[in-house]
Amino acid sequence: MTFRVETEFPIAFDSADHLHPWGTKRDNNTNENFVQEIMSRFTSDTKLKVIDLGCSGGKLIRSWLNHTEYAVGLEGSDYSAKADRAEWPKLYNKNLFTCDVSRSYQIMYDDEPFKANIITAWELVEHIDPTRVDEFAKMIDRHLVHDGVFVGSGATGSDAPDGVELHVNIKEKSFWDEKFETMYYKDMNYPFSHVVREGCDYNFCYKKVDPNKLTALF
């Protein structure tokens, strides 16, 4: 049983985060309290399925793998893969893959399209090229089951540690609220007690709902 990723863009080749590596070569975050909280709320008879976008060193995926085999992380830069950094030596092309998540891709599991119960994106949305926000959101929708959630954080300030702006898409949370509302997602007002990255400007949680049942939900 194996994962693979189908894409024509295995690297975010035009991204400042790839061309001028900063977080991708330093970050490696997880929070077991967050993982445990999600697990405690998940009551399905099947195992939890997880995707982490912008996974950097892959430590969050390593934490998920202590609870479920269905965990996969995507990172736009190949810096950590080439540097054999953090979790990549053990998990590269197994549970960690390089992929431009702002362009079309398909995660496969045992040659079947993979859909997750939860997709996370910690300190990622502000790095997405504004011209590819729609495709970024479309890929999240493609890979999320109904009643699944998209969870993460956003930033509203600049980040240019080497003089190159990495936050190319600085938006207030209301921007993402509107984007996902038009796709039939419900804003859950971040219902969890824990986060993976502390100190972010805002956290979000959008639940994918069945448009045929909107009357019952709203």
> Radius of gyration, Cα only, in angstroms?
16 Å
Oligomer: single chain
What topology, given as strand order, has the largest sheet? 4-3-2-7-8-10-9
Q: What class, by secondary structure content? A: alpha/beta
Approximate shape: globular
Order of helices and strands: EHHHEHEHHEEEEHEHEEH
The first-to-last residue Cα distance is 39 Å
Approximately how much helix is present in the residues? 25-40%
Tally of individual helices: 9
What kind of sheet is the major sheet?
7 strands, mixed
The low-pLDDT segments are: none
Structure in words:
It contains 9 helices and 10 strands. With 218 residues, the protein is of the alpha/beta class. The strands form 2 sheets. A 7-stranded mixed β-sheet has the order 4-3-2-7-8-10-9. A 3-stranded antiparallel β-sheet has the order 1-5-6, with no helix packed on it. Strand 2, helix 4 and strand 3 form a beta-alpha-beta unit. The longest helix is centred in the first third of the chain and has 10 residues. The model has no long low-confidence stretch (mean pLDDT 94).
Keywords:
9 helices; seven-stranded mixed beta sheet; globular; 218 residues; alpha/beta
What's the helix and strand layout?
Layout: E1 3-7, H1 16-19, H2 23-26, H3 32-41, E2 50-53, H4 59-64, E3 71-75, H5 79-82, H6 88-91, E4 96-98, E5 105-109, E6 112-113, E7 116-121, H7 133-142, E8 144-154, H8 173-181, E9 185-187, E10 202-208, H9 214-217
What is the compact description of this entry?
The chain is α/β, with parallel strands linked by helices and 218 residues long. It is built from nine helices and ten strands. Strand 7, helix 7 (133-142) and strand 8 form a beta-alpha-beta unit.
